[in-house]
């Protein structure tokens, strides 16, 4: 009896660690910054419904597929495919993932840098007595500068680099286990304040009352791309993380838990933001500045707002950090394996390279905002190509690999832990993995690009 208890406690602890690490990767700027602003741009409720459908029908099967591949092969993204399908071209999705990681981290580091500036502004009480128009001005004025956003981007990327060099396990895993629940508490407090603002119901119906006439083909593509982005899918992050999972872990349960946490936090962020958007007369389609303009308004309207504002931007920065680490890790693991570089060298090299690619992203917000190609700035292009082309394509190949190459037997072995667990959902999963997910991704993808 006593031994049994010890064993159970042990496995529980490691399970929490895994969930914290994967949730740390999934929950980030995607949930709190990007989800509300694209929901605003693409029309509200109908977009949210399409997003939720993408999460359940496509996101969840791909989370599970990455888990199956990673834990089966016990290797990094490229190596896993090489191991499971030797002498084939199946390593190509791995390479696409590395490319996507470079592009995503380039602009991710820029926005994460903004959170540091806002943290400093919160500490120095710079939002006190400002009205919504002032706050819009503060945000626009800041991101359009040349040096200051780049300074913060460099600081943030150095932090990411430093943690990846120093190793993740002790520090960042512990930190995310502690800080993720705190983030949740703060968002819930913000939600409570936001929904009691005068005029809040207008914001809630914007978020939850679908108006399908506002939905566009591009909106559906963006919803799908964001499902990938938010769940950290399509570029091998979850393959890498799950390669460290013990063979006792129940993959399906873990996948469902991560998906619920990630989606829940995105929705809670939406609930914190849209009532305030309407209460303060901010344009819901305001774009990337939405969180930075709206929330300081809310903080001013609540007791203890000064402290909550500091906490919020601190935690947003931490959430971004636990995600950026998982993105850099994909690139580093590849360099270490393929070019046989030392981990330290590989990390510093890739962090410096990615930071430099981020400079034009930062400048797209100001001096280079008019430098566009087909109406998209450099920043928008990196985001679009990575989130809406490489991630869905990578996800398509990953899920098809499990559906068609590993097949039912290969999946069953991993999902049941070699027959230890029952997996009554297996036929459903195989159906989704073989047909539904690949087909839907292909159709949405071609349609969104205007090719179908
Ligand atoms: N999911 C993170 C967010 O929502 C970002 C992220 C981390 C990511 N790892 C990824 C996105 C891998 C795509 C692929 O902020």
Q: Can you walk me through this structure?
A:
- With 452 residues, the protein is mainly α.
- It has helices spanning 2-26, 29-41, 45-73, 77-84, 92-123, 132-143, 147-166, 169-195, 200-208, 217-230, 237-242, 251-279, 290-300, 305-338, 343-363, 378-415, 426-448.
- Helix 3 packs antiparallel against helix 12 (251-279), helix 10 (217-230) crosses helix 16 (378-415) and helix 12 packs across helix 13.
- It starts with a helix and ends with a helix.
- Bound molecules: tryptophan.
- Residues 25-26, 28-31, 104, 229-230, 232, 235, 237, 323, 326-327, 391 line the site of tryptophan.
Task: Give me some keywords for this one.
about 450 residues; mainly alpha; 17 helices
With helices defined by DSSP (H or I, 4 residues minimum), what is the helix count? 17
| Termini gap | 62 Å
Number of strands: 0
| Helix vs. strand class | mainly alpha
Q: Largest sheet, described in full?
A: none
Please sum up the structure shown.
The protein has helices spanning 2-26, 29-41, 45-73, 77-84, 92-123, 132-143, 147-166, 169-195, 200-208, 217-230, 237-242, 251-279, 290-300, 305-338, 343-363, 378-415, 426-448. The protein is an all-alpha fold and 452 residues long.
């Amino acid at each position: 009896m006593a031994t049994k208890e010890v064993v159970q406690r042990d496995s529980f602890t490691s399970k929490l660690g895994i969930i914290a690490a994967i949730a740390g990767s999934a929950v980030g700027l995607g949930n709190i910054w990007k989800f509300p602003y694209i929901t605003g741009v693409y029309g509200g409720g109908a977009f949210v419904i399409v997003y939720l459908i993408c999460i359940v029908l496509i996101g969840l099967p791909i989370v599970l597929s990455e888990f199956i591949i990673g834990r089966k092969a016990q290797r990094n993204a490229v190596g896993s495919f090489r191991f499971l399908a030797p002498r084939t071209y199946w390593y190509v999705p791995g390479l696409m993932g590395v490319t996507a990681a470079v592009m995503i981290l380039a602009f991710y580091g820029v926005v994460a840098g903004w959170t540091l500036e806002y943290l400093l502004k919160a500490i120095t009480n710079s939002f006190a007595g400002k009205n919504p128009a002032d706050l819009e001005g503060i945000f626009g004025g800041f991101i359009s500068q040349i040096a200051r956003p780049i300074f913060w981007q460099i600081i943030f990327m150095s932090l990411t680099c430093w943690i990846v060099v120093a190793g993740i396990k002790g520090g960042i895993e512990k930190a995310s286990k502690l800080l993720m629940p705190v983030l949740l508490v703060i968002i819930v407090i913000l939600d409570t304040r936001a929904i009691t603002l005068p005029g809040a119901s207008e914001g809630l119906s914007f978020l939850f009352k679908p108006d399908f006439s506002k939905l566009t083909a591009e909106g559906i593509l963006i919803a799908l791309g964001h499902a990938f982005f938010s769940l950290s899918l399509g570029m091998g992050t979850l393959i890498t993380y799950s390669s460290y999972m013990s063979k006792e872990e129940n993959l399906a349960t873990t996948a469902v838990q991560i998906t619920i946490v990630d989606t829940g936090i995105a929705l809670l962020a939406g609930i914190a933001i849209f009532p305030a958007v309407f209460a303060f007369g901010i344009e819901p389609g305001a774009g990337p500045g939405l969180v930075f303009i709206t929330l300081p308004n809310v903080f001013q309207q609540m007791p203890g707002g000064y402290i909550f504002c500091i906490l919020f931007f601190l935690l947003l920065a931490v959430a971004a950090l636990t995600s950026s680490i998982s993105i850099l890790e994909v690139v580093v693991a590849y360099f270490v394996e393929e070019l046989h570089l030392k981990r330290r060298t590989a990390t510093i090299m890739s962090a410096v390279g990615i930071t430099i690619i981020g400079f034009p992203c930062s400048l797209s917000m100001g001096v280079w905002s008019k430098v566009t190609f087909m109406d998209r700035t450099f920043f928008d292009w990196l985001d679009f190509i990575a989130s809406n082309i490489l991630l869905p394509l990578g996800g398509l190949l990953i899920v098809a690999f499990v559906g068609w190459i590993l097949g039912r037997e290969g999946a069953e072995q991993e999902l049941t832990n070699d027959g230890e667990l029952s997996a009554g959902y297996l036929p459903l999963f195989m159906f989704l993995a073989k047909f539904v997910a690949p087909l839907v991704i292909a159709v949405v993808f071609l349609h969104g690009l205007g090719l179908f």
